[in-house]
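[09:14] KT: can someone run the structure on this one? pasting the chain below
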Amino acid sequence: MSHCTYCDTFVSTDFVRVFGDENGRVYACPNCTANAGIQQVSSERKASMA
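[09:31] RB: done, structure tokens below
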């Protein structure tokens, strides 16, 4: 089962496939981010965690 690395909310396999990184990690989800900005916030959080 996959979870958002930011808020630990469950995310579906399809969500991970679309918004996850190459290792299957998701840095933003609908629970902690506005739907329109998931891709942008995910990229910013991934960069800050690197």
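[09:33] KT: thanks! The mean pLDDT is 89.
[09:34] RB: yep, looked fine to me
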